[in-house]
Amino acid sequence: MKNTKILIADHHLMVREGLKFLLDREDFFEVVGVAGNSQETLTLVKSKKPDILLMDLSLPAISRLDIAKLVKTASAKTNLMVMSNSIKQAHVRQTLQGGARGYILKTAPFSELVQAINTVNQGNYYLSSEIKTDIIDHFIKQTDEAPVHNKYNLLTKREKEVFRLLIAGNSTEEIAKLIHISPKTVAKHRSNLMEKLEILNIASLVRYAIKIGVLDNEYEAT
Questions:
Q1: 114 & 34 share domain
Q2: Which end of the chain has the lower number of beta carbons within 10 A, N or C?
Q3: Residue 38: how many CB atoms within 10 A of its CB?
Q4: CB count, 10 Å around CB of 95?
């Protein structure tokens, strides 16, 4: 069996060294590098072409929505697998939507990490069991609220972009600068999206974003 080449990215030196020691002891794994920041990670992905990038979700300066795309640009063969202490659905969803193939909790035993790497390397998705259970429970609870979620799907791509920037606290002028359109156009998108969602003010918009999982209700980044 061909060795699975792994790159480890974590901002804690002890974590990097510990994982390298454990993974190198496995017969079919080969750790080809370790990185402590985003730039170093992408540089090593490009030069080492690992099969798996095992990366801490909170690695500085990398967006959950951007990292997988950057990794694939650097190495098309590399699959991203994220390690995290967070079981929040918003974090899991953003990570998977961003292109990650696996999400494992740092509290998991090493045997589960081995299983997760093998699963992702075979082209499948892997989620820690605790996360799977939480997602299933959430799905069951939200089934009756499908019409509320469906309203969000009525928004255009640009309206969703304005929606996210609004709930992040940006003004009309700030949004206009960020997405390179006129304030008048931003105001039009804002009016349209609030009409589609049947929402009258920003406070209600934020509550709605939390309800459907677009915004983390504790406003935490990791």
A1: yes
A2: N
A3: 19
A4: 24
